[in-house]
Design goal:
This protein is an alpha+beta fold and about 750 residues long. It is built from 23 helices and 16 strands. Bound molecules: 2-acetamido-2-deoxy-beta-D-glucopyranose (2 copies). One 2-acetamido-2-deoxy-beta-D-glucopyranose binds near residues 512, 513 and 685. It holds the Pfam family TPR_leprecan.
Length: about 750
């Protein structure tokens, strides 16, 4: 009975007290109707609040039910993760590394132990032999044999339970919330590790962590940028760009494919063979892990009233469904949405051709025959088989058979499918076959017809919904057009009184899908645009230190910049036309006045920094470019896009209050300005640069922004940052204005 006493309070049932609250009928913790007192949950969770006096790294679980003999040795990975995150915000990099590494290690251990326990217990408590005290072989018919059957089941459960208990401690310890699961699925720990390793100068580890994170988050702009930086750094090797979470079977498959496309067939075959071995190992593990808790999936387990065999059926169908899904799970490449189609069979397709090219006809025949197990009518493969057999000799070819391990795999998979289809027909438990190779007759006739009808209905509904959506879109667009015309007409003249002649408000914050944003056109003339672009190029050539250098943000671009102070100095030295320097200076004043007036400020703005910047695409470095010209950031805080947060602390320029970018040209490709959400990914508005156009915006977290890659030509703009705090005024303005000198005097 020991087993049941532990089972009652074991993991499997506890989370349900909280989890399916969606149904609205779950009692709260401590509710007298709850099947278990609320504190059980806390007691069994790794909750330091429950054990305030206990040191965090020594756990001895005070379980009131059945004291486990072995002390717990494995710290729960969600706790380690939280500790790591906390350390990150305290800048305690060593602690970040310690906790995150341990969290990853422990999570992997939990997974491994669970799989191993289930596999070895399956072996130890096999059916088919005589069972103690029953005296008859199992399985058999009759109540005595039933007893024997369930004796096996109980032994198996006891075996798995003690195995896990011994190695992991109480199972509830390693249960984590969905959020934590998501963090690990997104490989977030590697994001923290990347920073921590970088901070303590362990570049190789930082690179590996960054790369590992990026594999699972290929749209993550900042990490892409980081990786570009790392690539340019001295001391970073190509081998450092590892994927620490790569699954062996997939890595080998991809390597095999790479050699295959390079026509290195010998090496390709070697890697595909390893990939197949690893696939079957991973498949066993994946299937063992399916034998977990029943997922009520939104149903109220308290209303669940299935009898013994219904309950077993429900759970077992779920397990089988999960096992079938392993075919997809294993075919998924990290960071990709779609699994490789026909994954396992394709190995044998690659292999047969690789062996043929290496003149290994016996192996080639073996692999064709193995492939044909999946797709017996494949024309090309049958032709290949005929050809290889002719080359090798028909008699010899006859003796070669398909691989046993694959025969077994298919046999088991077909049995699973048949059971699942039976469950589908008899109990309506849905099953969608993930494989493309399943013979048609595995699915029962009645189901096939039903599914056909359902598919047609689904297609019809999809079409109807599509039409409806189109109608709605058209309606919304018409509405929007009306209202945007209105805002232009109403908002422009009254709310923007102080604008200079010829300047017009092209888009208000509303049209730019945000707040504290404005787009103006006609801020300067074509001639002025050209003059400033020349100024930038002249300064880059003549002024030391301003020669075009590799962009700090992108390896695909050259970058040159000149500040107002530098322009004025170069002007005084006769290296650039004084008139152009003056234009730069005057224009900055004009922009300042416009911002003050447009945003209705009642205290003046001060220049914080002004920069004339040109970025030029490097022609030979544009292939497959996916980075940004300037990564998404916020001007006055540190954007932490993973957390949708922006921290207003140094080294961010926290004193910046308003920003403006004035464009000088549009004869280049790419280089559009974007506003995004705090996630640095979701673009909310896009602005195409052109001469005289200016985007002005608040420098705070309401306005994350960046610049898309410039892929051809040169893009020039004046970037201006303003502060409300006179203490942070840019030096040139203090020199030229505040000392009582008329700035015209300087020039
Ligand atoms: C199953 O048990 C037998 C005998 O105890 C052992 O030889 C075999 O390696 C085991 N297989 C697995 C998969 O553990
Ligand atoms: C604002 O959002 C709408 C809807 O997503 C989009 O069509 C429009 O282009 C956005 N505005 C700008 C300036 O990008």
């Amino acid at each position: 009975m020991k087993y049941f006493s532990t089972y009652l309070v074991s993991s499997r049932f506890l989370p349900l007290i909280v989890a399916p609250a969606t149904r609205g009928q779950q009692p709260e913790h401590g509710d007298p109707d709850a099947p278990l007192p609320g504190h059980f949950h806390q007691l069994l969770r790794w909750d330091t609040k429950t054990f305030p006096s206990q040191p965090r790294d020594i756990i001895s679980l005070a379980c009131p039910c059945s004291a486990p003999e072995s002390p717990l040795v494995l710290e729960p990975y969600d706790f380690l993760f939280d500790t790591g995150v906390e350390a990150y915000y305290n800048g305690d990099w060593l602690s970040v590394i310690l906790n995150m590494e341990k969290a990853l290690k422990n999570k992997a251990t939990v997974r491994k132990v669970k799989a191993q326990c289930r596999l070895s217990c399956a072996n130890q408590t096999a059916f088919g032999d005589h069972v103690d005290g029953v005296g008859v072989p199992i399985p058999g018919a009759g109540s005595l044999e039933d007893l024997g059957f369930f004796q096996k089941i109980l032994k198996r459960a006891d075996c798995v339970n003690s195995c896990e208990m011994e190695k992991l401690g109480h199972p509830t310890m390693h249960q984590v919330t969905e959020e934590i699961q998501l963090e690990f699925n997104k490989r977030s720990p590697y994001n923290y590790l990347q920073v921590a390793y970088f901070k303590i100068n362990k570049l190789d580890k930082a690179v590996a962590a960054a790369n590992t994170f990026f594999q699972a988050n290929p749209d993550h702009m900042e990490m892409r940028q980081n990786l570009e930086y790392y690539r340019m750094m001295a001391g970073v090797q190509e081998e450092d760009f590892k994927d620490l979470e790569a699954r062996t079977h997939m890595a080998e498959f991809l390597l095999g494919k790479r050699y295959y496309s390079d026509d290195s067939f010998g090496l390709a075959a070697e890697h595909f063979e390893v990939a197949i071995d690893e696939f079957f190992t991973a498949d066993k593990e994946c299937k063992a892990l399916c034998e977990g808790a029943y997922n009520y999936d939104g149903y109220n387990y308290m209303e669940y009233s299935a009898d013994l065999f219904q309950t077993i059926t429900d759970h077992y169908m779920q397990v089988l469904n999960c096992k079938q899904h392993c075919a997809v799970e294993l075919a998924l490449n990290t960071g990709k949405d779609k699994a490789f189609e026909d994954f396992l069979p394709s190995h044998f397709n690659y292999l047969q051709f690789s062996y043929y090219n290496s003149e290994k006809y016996e192996q080639a025949i073996e692999c064709t025959k193995t492939f044909l197990l999946f797709h017996p009518n494949d024309e090309v493969m049958n032709q290949n088989l005929a050809y290889y057999s002719a080359v090798l000799g028909e008699d010899k070819a006859q003796t070669i058979s398909a691989r046993e391990v694959v025969k077994q795999y298919i046999h088991q998979s077909m049995l699973e499918k048949k059971l699942l289809y039976f469950g589908y027909e008899a109990f309506g438990i849905t099953f969608v076959d993930p494989d493309t190779w399943t013979p048609e007759d595995v699915m029962p006739n009645k189901l096939r017809e039903k599914q056909k009808a359902e598919k047609e209905t689904a297609a019809r509904i999809t079409e109807e919904i599509g039409n409806l959506m189109k109608e709605i879109e058209t309606l919304v667009e018409e509405k929007k057009k009306d209202s945007s015309d209105m805002t232009k007409i109403i908002a422009t003249p009254e709310s923007v009184p102080l604008l200079h002649d010829g300047i017009k408000v092209t888009m208000t914050a509303k049209l730019l899908n945000g707040s504290q944003r404005v787009l103006l056109d006609g801020v300067i003339t074509e001639d002025e645009c050209r003059e400033l672009q020349h100024l930038s190029n002249a300064a880059a050539q003549k002024g030391d230190g301003y020669r075009g250098k590799l962009s700090p943000h992108s390896a695909g671009e050259m970058f040159q910049g000149v500040t107002v102070l530098k322009a004025v100095k170069l002007g005084q030295e006769g290296k650039v036309p004084l008139k152009s320097a003056r234009l730069f200076f005057d224009l900055s004043e004009k922009v300042k006045k416009m911002l003050e007036s447009y945003f209705g400020l009642d205290t003046p703005l001060y220049f914080a920094y002004t920069h004339l910047v040109c970025r030029s695409a490097i022609e030979e470095k544009q292939e497959d470019r996916e980075d940004l010209s300037h990564p998404v950031h916020v001007d006055n805080c540190l954007l932490i896009s993973e957390m949708n947060e922006c921290i207003k602390e140094p080294p961010a320029y926290t004193h910046r209050d308003y920003s403006a970018i004035l464009y000088l040209n549009n004869d280049f490709e790419g280089g559009d300005f974007i506003f995004t959400e705090l996630d640095a990914k979701t673009v909310t508005a896009e602005v195409r640069p052109q001469c005289g156009r200016m985007v002005g915006f608040g420098a705070g977290k309401e306005n994350p922004h960046g610049v898309r890659a410039v892929t051809k030509g040169q893009r020039c703009a004046v970037a201006l940052w303003f502060t409300l705090d006179p203490a942070h005024e840019e030096k040139v303005w203090i020199i030229s204005v505040d000392r009582g000198q008329d700035y015209k005097g300087i020039m």
